[in-house]
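Replying to the earlier thread about multi-chain prediction with a worked example.

Input:
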Amino acid sequence: MELPFFYLFSVGIIGASILMVTRANVIHAALLLVLTFFFLSGVYVLAGAEFLAVVQILLYAGGIMVLYLFSIMLMSVDVAVRLRQFHRQTIFAMATAVLLALEIWMVLSRGTSYPAFKSFGWGIGATPGNVEALGSVLYTQFLFPFEVASVLLLAAMIGAIVLAKRTIDR
Amino acid sequence: MLDVESSQRVERGPSTVPGTEDLVINMGPQHPSTHGVLRVILKMDGETVTDVDCDIGYLHRGTEKIGENITYTMFIPYTDRLDYIAAPSSNLAWVQTVESLFDWEIPPRALFIRSMVAELSRIASHLLWLATHALDIGAMTVFLWCFREREMVLDLFERAFGARLTVNAFRLGGLFQDVPQEFLDDTRAFIEIFPSRIDDYETLLTENRIWLQRTQGVGVISAEDAMDLALTGPILRSTGVQWDLRRAKPYAAYPFLDFVVPVGENGDVYDRYLVRVEEMRQSTRIIEQCLDMLPDGPVSCKTPRTIKPPAGEVYHSIENPKGEFGFYLVSDGTETPYRVRIRPPSFINLAGLKKLSVGGLLADVIAIIGSIDIVLGECDR
Amino acid sequence: MIAEIIAATLKIVLVLGVVSLVVAYLTYLERKIIGHIQMRLGPMRVGWHGLLQPIADGLKLFLKEDIIPSRADKIVFVIAPIMVLVPAFVVYSVLPFGPNFYITQVNVGLFLVLAVSSLGVFGIVMAGWASNSKYSLLGALRGAAQMLSYEIFLGFALIGPLMLAGSLNLQNIVQAQSDVWFVFYQPLAFIVFFIAALAETNRVPFDLPEAETELVAGFHTEYSGMKFAFFFLAEYANIMAVSTVGIAVFFGGWKGIPGIPLPGLVWYLLKLGAIIFVFIWIRATLPRYRYDQLMRIGWKFMFPLVIANIFLTGLVKLLFL
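Result:
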């Protein structure tokens, strides 16, 4: 039952991503990215990570991408379409792609036996109804990284306000 | 900013220079809250208005020129079509202007009926203003409540003059015929219930926090600026200037009537609202006094069969619901006027729109247009 | 397996059908109630007391010419109304209507409702942008900013009751209110929730994205026919969904007052009717806020309020429970 859905979502992710990077119209690209997020959260659901799936939709699709669209909408899309689409960064992009491929290969070949995963409590998301488990792990074992991340976000937020305010005042 | 006008699209060409453009919004001529065929061109920085330009003339019918080609009596129905929200007021301005070229003695009964009908038209006009102004700000129940009472006023007009909107109420020298007794009875019934209806509107608006936030401190103008721009009517009185032609240059039966000229303090949209609501109450008082004091007798003086005023010129104006409504008339002694010039309050008050709205938000412009209370019929003539 | 799928499909079809019909009749209810508040009768012509009016309206909208502006982005323009309607209906998949009457239960239920309903804003943004009209664009900008902000207050207002219930599953939340409805424990949270719900569904006094006197019709200015009907349906479906969430979280869902034996579904419908009446009542009474005022109320007034509420709830729970 799950396998056809998995293939459906996977094809969706790959198809939407390819369409996304080839669109000249930024709005279309952004909307396709949202579609990618949808399929991705579908995969999360199949993997039993309901919470992650919902967060994916709520934060990325419902929050961040709307803000993206918001700012893209205010630009003149016609001008952007006529801009050069390639920026002679082929070599740099290739190098990044190779590095990424290596990383994925390493993870896949060693699987969950890799010691780092073990210490990170890998597998708590495997049982359905993982919200409580996730919450308790997040606020006990990973409290420090969690708080560090929130402080980082707060700093970024303040920074953004300061930058924007300076422009408005000027 | 996004630019929808195709011509500019081509001119600009591909450019990588970052920068922003102002958004130009064409409000009207077909827009729900420009109160007719007014076109307002707004330049906006985000939601803040940086420039306002009015484009008028969509309802221009050449009324002034028509006036030069027809007789003085024939022009009365044309004045109905100027401020069609309060047609009797326009009629009154015209007949008084022509009468001032003669030395006729208008019978007192006619004068009192004229004042009474003019005040009814003020109520009708202010009701339409309140209805649409509240609707512009989103209060839609007030809209329908106001129309319920405006309907009653229009019924009164129908009873007295046979028409509801373009009433052609007055004639040179008085009235066409005496008003029926039922009109007087119904008017009395109307003014008995009307104050409680005003209370109803005020319940919904006057102390409503949202209404206060939307209107207080919005579209503020000082008394000096208002006078420099020649603004008249409630918009001038809201700044604290007690200028009402019914008091300053009394006409019809107003010298005998007791009423208060309400003034505001801050000159904002809220004060204009308060001034107009209070004017409705005062109008009710005036109508009541007219009914009590209404003398018997003829309703028209003896007038010649063909109206040929002596050669000369005259400017006469009255306090229309919207402001000073006047006619400048040049007579060459023939049956038709040599020149008719209309001083429409809407046209001149509308000139203050830019002063009132720049620096505000888009939603404020809507509230301000509503608070100026324009009618395009007289604005475009 | 097959039986399960058939049962699930039947349930989905049933709920979708009922919801669509109820949503259509919400428009009738709204017109009737507002009509009577405004001293008029509302629809009277189609059927007895205008009861068939929603069906006539639906037929009319089906038969209307479907206009796509020539300079619009056609694909996005067509997808936008669907993007508004689909999340509005998907939300119903986890809402509890009765003790045994729901489509499914998931552990992240409430969270899923928030996530899916937040997607509606995409439709608005897409519609506003694709129409290639300034009124639509301004409406979409307002809509996006408003819904993003108020979603935060909506979600934060729900955290208080969630802490009391200790679950995100909507059925469990309802069960947790067997003794006392959470509205008595969390009045502040409910007030914030209700205001945010008004803003989230673009209702008066927060109907800025479609403020007809300023922006003609806001983001759906250029839409006509069935596409327009989709926006309309979605608005009412959202009202019903958000009311259902409110009932489930604050008013004990399908649980009734003890001593009055009525089925759970009836209790739910009674509460739904009461809340929707308040929605309509407010629409008939209040004027509209201005855009900057809306944002100020949200961020400077409601946001500190919900944070304080969460803090207090946590404190009380830590000390006394």
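The two ends of chain B are 38 Å apart (CA to CA).

Feel free to reuse this layout for your own posts.
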